[in-house]
């Protein structure tokens, strides 16, 4: 998700979106490791499930926050639209 090319990836790498996504990664990784280690321990399994659930929720909120950031800044919408338009015009003029 963060490996996108162009201007769009900046929205994921700044502000609140960055914090939410980094925390989500940590919770997801921790929950997965705890799930592997838990085996038959019910308490560890419950903590692991809660960590995975929280990681999933924070990922969703992080992506939403990045969308809000990109919607507020016209650079994230206007520049890609202009690039697509110019690419389309170049392909139609070549043919």
Q: Characterize the largest beta sheet: strand count, sense, and whether it forms a barrel.
A: none
Instruction: Tell me the Rg in angstroms.
Output: 19 Å
| Number of alpha- plus pi-helical segments | 4
Gross geometry: elongated
Count the domains: 1
**Mean pLDDT, as a whole number?**
87
Secondary-structure-based class equals mainly alpha
Helix percent band? over 70%
Strand content: under 5%
Calculate the terminal CA-CA distance, rounded to whole Å. Answer: 34 Å
Spans of at least 5 consecutive residues with low confidence? none
Q: Summarize the helix and strand pattern as letters.
A: HHHH
Number of DSSP-assigned strands:
0
Summarize the structure in words:
The chain has helices spanning 9-12, 15-38, 42-72, 75-94. The chain has one domain (9-94). It has four helices and no strands. Helices cover 83% and strands 0% of the residues. It is mainly alpha-helical.
Helix-strand layout with pairing:
Blueprint: H1 9-12, H2 15-38, H3 42-72, H4 75-94
Question: Characteristics of this structure?
Answer:
83% helix; mainly alpha; 95 residues; elongated
Short account of what is shown:
With 95 residues, this protein is mainly alpha-helical. It has 4 helices and no strands. It has one domain (9-94).
């Amino acid at each position: 998700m963060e490996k996108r090319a162009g201007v769009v990836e900046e929205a994921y790498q700044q502000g609140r979106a960055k914090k939410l996504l980094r925390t989500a990664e940590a919770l997801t990784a921790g929950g997965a490791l705890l799930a592997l280690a838990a085996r038959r321990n019910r308490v560890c399994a419950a903590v692991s499930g809660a960590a995975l659930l929280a990681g999933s929720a924070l990922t969703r909120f992080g992506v939403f926050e990045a969308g809000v950031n990109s919607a507020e800044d016209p650079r994230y919408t206007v520049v890609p639209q202009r690039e697509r338009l110019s690419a389309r015009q170049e392909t139609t003029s070549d043919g």
